[in-house]
Amino acid sequence: MASKKRVAVVGTGTVGSQAAWRLAARGAEVVGYDRFAPGHDRSAAGGETRVFRSLQTHDSRYVPLVRHADVLWEQLQAETGRELRRLTGALVMGPADDPQMRTVVDGIAEHGLDHEVIDAEAMTKRFPQFRVDDGELVILDRRAGFIRPELAVQTAARRAEELGALIRRYTPVREVAPVAGGGVEIRTDTGTERFDAAVVTPGPWVGDLLPGLPWQVNVYRAISAWFLPHEDPAADAERPAFIRCGDTPFYGIPSPDGLAVKLGLSQAHHQPVDDPNRLNRTVAPEELETFTAVVRRHLPGLNPDPVRVSVFMEGYTESNLPLVGPLPGCDDIVLLAGFSGQGFKLAPAMGDIAADLVLEGRTSQPIDFVTTHARTVA
Ligand SMILES: Cc1cc2nc3c(=O)[nH]c(=O)nc-3n(C[C@H](O)[C@H](O)[C@H](O)COP(=O)(O)OP(=O)(O)OC[C@H]3O[C@@H](n4cnc5c(N)ncnc54)[C@H](O)[C@@H]3O)c2cc1C
């Protein structure tokens, strides 16, 4: 019988924890490394919720990958008995002629996604928490809701450990080095370990860990802010997540406990991060002005004074599409990075694709638009 493939996972955050689960479930001997511990909030994950949605505002090519992720979210939830996602639905709204709304409408036509168009009268009755302007389109994404990021990362990592993975916590990897003739060495402050292959998922630290990477991943500081309603919502009120397209795009997610709504703005409002090790987690009052403005304009039921703020990091490539696949000239090192604001919903699919690439050398998932093979090397 062939021996188990020994695989390192560098960074057991959003994507890495899922890669560890999928690799361990598929028979690999897995060692994960993280500079912190699974479920921490110092990187891209955290803040209670992330939107899961089937309707795509940026690029409909994500739809098949989201469908694969959807199946795996259900599987992880069933295997562990934890409520990782709650499918509340998500409203996608904005001017009908907005390019992102057009991407949504085209994606529905192309992929037959489960949805409902909500007219102005129905909005007033069903979703009085939103103000919708004339000429705006509102579509309810029925296969949508929120994911719990801390719980999802910890649950995937724990499931991987149950299946035999070892996770080295508080162990920053200093170097991932290909070995002549095949294999990879992982170097940390305490020693060097040898593997058949490595999945590298360091999120915002990708430039730090792989300084010679031929692609740029720019890191941004993203603020989440929580707001309370003026009145308690009715017990039977529908409280979907939502995405608002238009001149100031933003999104919102009801808190799992039902008490607050978390809002986030688009990348245009994020500040660049020079060094992920020195993230400024203090939010200045002027950074909240756009939040206050969108609450006043679009969400009349919320008090515009936030009750909580948090800061996270997101990595963006030049095209905003993630990098998925082997490093140039080294098939044993598979990189997954630069997931911008899209990565959480996709994470189990990306973990499974990493396992495909490492264990089988190819994947049947449609990753042509994100694969490292298709990228120009600078
Ligand atoms: C505020 C905010 C809101 C978002 N909302 C959504 C949303 O609603 N829906 C959605 O789908 N996506 C959303 N996203 C995007 C999503 O959260 C990210 O795309 C995703 O979390 C990125 O995952 P990752 O695994 O690449 O990075 P991370 O989750 O940051 O994981 C990287 C891990 O690598 C570890 N690490 C780094 N360097 C090393 C090293 N040298 N050695 C060891 N370990 C290392 C880190 O400690 C970390 O645990 C949002 C992002 C932010 C910031």
TrEMBL record:
Protein origin, superkingdom:
Bacteria
Instruction: Provide the cofactor list for this protein.
Output: FAD
Which InterPro entries would you find in this protein's record? FAD-dep_OxRdtase (IPR006076), FAD/NAD-bd_sf (IPR036188), MTOX (IPR045170)
List UniProt keywords, sorted A-Z.
FAD, Flavoprotein, Oxidoreductase
The segment(s) forming the FAD dependent oxidoreductase domain are 6-357
Query: What Pfam family is a match for this entry?
Result: DAO
Q: Does the keyword Oxidoreductase belong to this entry?
A: yes
Example GO molecular function: N-methyl-L-amino-acid oxidase activity
- The catalytic activity of this protein is classed by the Enzyme Commission as 1.5.3.2
Keyword Oxidoreductase among record annotations: yes
Q: Extract the Gene3D superfamilies matched here.
A: D-Amino Acid Oxidase, subunit A, domain 2, FAD/NAD(P)-binding domain
- Protein name (Swiss-Prot/TrEMBL): N-methyl-L-tryptophan oxidase
Recorded source organism is: Lentzea alba
Upper classification of the organism: Bacteria, Bacillati, Actinomycetota, Actinomycetes, Pseudonocardiales
State the encoding gene. Answer: solA
